[in-house]
Write a structure and sequence with these properties.
single chain; about 475 residues; mainly alpha; 20 helices
Amino acid sequence: MKNVLREEITANLHRALWGAALITLPVTSFRWFPLLGDSTLVRPLALYPLALLLPLLLTVQRRGKTKLPWAGAFIPLGALVLFMFAATSFGAVLAPIPLRGQIYSGRALRALATLFIGIAFFISAVWMNQDEDDLRFTLRWLLAGLSLTLAWSGLQAVTFYTNLLNKEMVTHWQLAFSMRELVRTNRISGLAYEPAWLAGQLATIYIPFLFAATLANFRLTRHKWLEPALLALSLLVVLATYSRGGLITTLAAAGLTFLFLERSLMRGLWQWLRNGFHGRLRDILFRMSIIAATLALVGSAFLFLGQKNFFRRLWQTDAQTLSEYLVDINAGARGAYSAGALAAFEAHPLSGVGLGASGFYIYQNLPDWALTTVPEIAKQLNPENRLYPNPKNLYARLLAETGLIGFFLFLAFQFHILGDMLNLLRRAENWARFAATAGVFAWLAITFYNFTQDSLTTPNIWLVSGILVGLASKSFTTSEDAVLRK
C-alpha cells in the first residue's frame, strides 16, 4: 500500500513540475539566475522546474518505475552532439585570439551548456508526452501560460495606448522578473525579452496547437469558442509586436500547412464559394460579404503594420542591390553578422571552428558595405564596446561552428522529427491527426524562425518537437507490440 501511495505521489510530482515548466515558459529572460552576467539574455524561467523534474525522472527510471520511451530521433541527435564535441575539440586547436575578454574555452563551455539545456527541454517533452492523456495535460498548462502572456500583453497595450496606467510604474513591475524594461517604441513584448521573441514563441509553440484545434474542431477546453478566441488574440498580439520575422513565419507556416495537409478542405471551401454564386441572391450576398470581410481584415492589418516606418520599408525602398535592401529595412547588421560567420565556414567547411566560436571570426570578416552604411556595426566596432558578436542565424552558426557535417546531422535530426510527426497521420484517432497538424505547423515555423535567431537554449525549437516525438515513439511501440502479439 505504501509503495502504491509513493508511486502516486511521485507521478503527481512529475506532472506538477512539468506543468510548472509549461506555465512559466513565456518568461524568457528571468532576472534572478545566479552566476550569469548581464550579457546572458536567454534565461528561461522554465529551467527551474525542469532542473527538478529531470533528476527525479532519472531516479525513478533507475528504480524501474518509469522508462524514457525510445525514439529514433535520438540517433541523429546523439550523432550531432558527438560531432559537436569533436568540432569543439578541433576549434581548440585553431586557438582563436581572445576577443573583448572572451576566450575560446569559456565560449565553448557556455555553448555546450546551452546545447544541453535545449536538449533537456526536448527529452523532458518526449518523456512527459506518451499518449492522448499526457498531451491534453500538456496543452492545458501550455494554454495557462499563453493566457498569462496574453494578459500581460494586454496590460502593456493599455499602458502604451491609454492613460490608465503609468508607463514608469509598469516598467518597474516588468523589471521585477525580466532583464528588460518595456519597449520604448510601444511594441508589445509580453513576458518575453523583446517583441520578436514573443512573436517567435506564439508562432512556434502556441499558435500551431490553436490553429490545428480550430481546423480539426478538436476541443482543448470545455468551451467551443475558447480555442478560436485564443487563436484570434494570439494573432492580434503577433501584429502588435510589429515583428516582421514573426509575422512572416506565422503566415508561411499556416499557408504551407494548409497546402500540404488540408488540400481537401481548401478544395471544399473553393467549391462551396464557387457554387454559391450560381444560387439564390441571398447565397451570393453571403459569400460576397465573406470576401469583403476577409479583404477588410487583410487591409486593416496592412494599414496597422504600415504605421511603423521600419515595416513600411519592406515595400517602400529604392535599393538597387541586396545589401542596400538589407540596410534599408534595418536588417543590415543581421546580414553582416551572418556573412562574417559564413566566412569562418568557408575557411573550415567540414568541421567548422568549434561550438560557440563563430564570434571570434565575425568582426574580421565583415563585408565592406557593412562598415560604412550600418550604424549598429560602427557601434560594435567601437573599442570600448564589450559585446561578443553572434551570427543571428542558426543555420549560419551551425555551418560556421560545426561545418557541413554538423549542419547535415542537424538537418537529419530535424527531418527525422518531421517523419515522426507525419507517422501520426497513419493513426485513425482524431487526436493523432490534430497533433500531427500542429506538429507540422510548428516544424515549419521553427524552420523559418531559425533564420532569425541563433540560440540553442531557447525552448521554442525543442518543445513541440519533443512532444510530437514522444507521442509518435509511444504510438509506434504500441503498434509494434500489437503486431507481435498477433
